[in-house]
Every structure is written in structure tokens, then in C-alpha cells.
Amino acid sequence: MNVPEIEAGQVPEDVFLLDVREPEEWRAGHAPTAVHIPLGMLQQRVDELPAGVPVYVVCKVGGRSANAAAWLNHIGREAVNVGGGMMSWAAAGRPMVADHEGKPFVA
Q: Residue 45 sits in which domain range?
């Protein structure tokens, strides 16, 4: 599969960021502006994504998000995979929050 990809440290701050991880992964730490739709629910909830703008897709390490981005591109949306996922996001020092604590996530 040929999916556009960007490194986590290079993701612009003002993009639509879609997190496709499972709820427990999301609660443990996510990007503050991300929208959470687990991969298994993406097909049913795709209409919640904005049309006409690129969707940057992230998961834990990049595999699920690559699949999600490939599917989104296949159905005519513009999607970009965030390479390395939230592991790379944290390593790049990008902001994260944890829902269960309401405090910044510390990698």
C-alpha cells in the first residue's frame, strides 16, 4: 500500500488529527487536539471527518493508522499517516494529555 506519510515531529499544529487507537490507549495519552475514532468504528463514523481537508491519522506505532489512511484515500478522502505513531509523537516532544488524570502525559 502506498500511503502518504509524515514524521510525527513534522505534523503541522493546525491540522485535523485523527487517533484510531483503542479507548484505553487514548486515555493513557493523546495529542490535545486529536479526534478519537477507534479503527474498528472508522467506517461507521467516517462522516464525522471533515471533507476537503487532509486528515492526519495516528495510532501507537503507525500500522493501524497506515491502514486507516489507505482506506480513507481509497474512498476519496485525503489522508496522511503519522509515521511511528504516538510513540514517535512522544519521542519528538509533542504535547500530550491523559484523560484519566487531566494532566500532561509524560513519556
A: 5-101
Residue-wise pLDDT for 17-64, tens only, equals 999 999 999 999 999 999 999 999 999 999 999 999 999 999 999 999
Per the annotation, the verdict on 59 as an active-site residue is: yes
Is 30 part of any domain?
A: yes
What is the residue-wise DSSP string for 31-100? -TT-EE--GGGHHHHGGGSPSSS-EEEE-SSSHHHHHHHHHHHHTT--EEEEETHHHHHHHTT---EETT
Look at residue 87 and tell me if it is in a domain: yes
Asked whether residue 77 is assigned to any structural domain, the reply reads yes
What pTM was estimated for this model as a whole?
0.91
Answer whether residue 107 is part of any domain.
Answer: no
| From 20, 59, 69, 96, the catalytic residue | 59
